[in-house]
Amino acid sequence: MTIPTRRLLMAAAAVGAALALAGCNQSGGGGATPVDSMTLGNPNAPVKMEEYASVTCSHCGRFHSEVFPAFKAKYIDTGKVHYTFNEFLTDPPAVAVAGFLTARCAGKDKYFSVIDALFRSQEEMYRTQDPRGTLLKVAQSAGMTEAQFNACVNDEKALTAIEARVKAAQDRGISSTPSFFINGKKAKDGEMTLEELDAAVAAAMK
Questions:
Q1: 151-165 pLDDT per residue, tens
Q2: CATH topology classification for 6-31+48-193
Q3: Which end of the chain is more exposed for a tag (fewer CB within 10 A), N or C?
């Protein structure tokens, strides 16, 4: 299941060559600074939460559909937590690359809404076996034309940038998604419940 664009497929192969792409769990630790990550909330919040996620990871999709909205309302929107979203790739890597490129092409103000739409479109994408059609639909809902979408997923500079972001994640020891850090320390590999997040934030605020 791939995006039928030769350049994108080649880029995804290069970006994902060193990744373990079989699942969405098991990861390591580390300490590199994320490259050009997307954020939400007050930069001066006492708690910094980082997530490494992939738009093709079902575990990430479930977390963002079932847990993240309540977490965002309770902590990010109230200024208690500054949230950083770090892009990573899981199978199929070409689709993950195209999804992240689409979100960035939509603009910073629409980035997270596109990411949310991609997570919520996972079932449709796998059911129809038409990832390009699903991604295009999401892109168009964000105001992009098909021509803009095609140009977006073939942008050389953007492809190089996502390669750098994935490399930064690998340098930190990330090998799968989701993975969470609280104030620079690994909180958990795999999905977190709201109760686990409550405990992690409370501990970080002490």
A1: 999 998 999 999 999
A2: Glutaredoxin (3.40.30)
A3: C
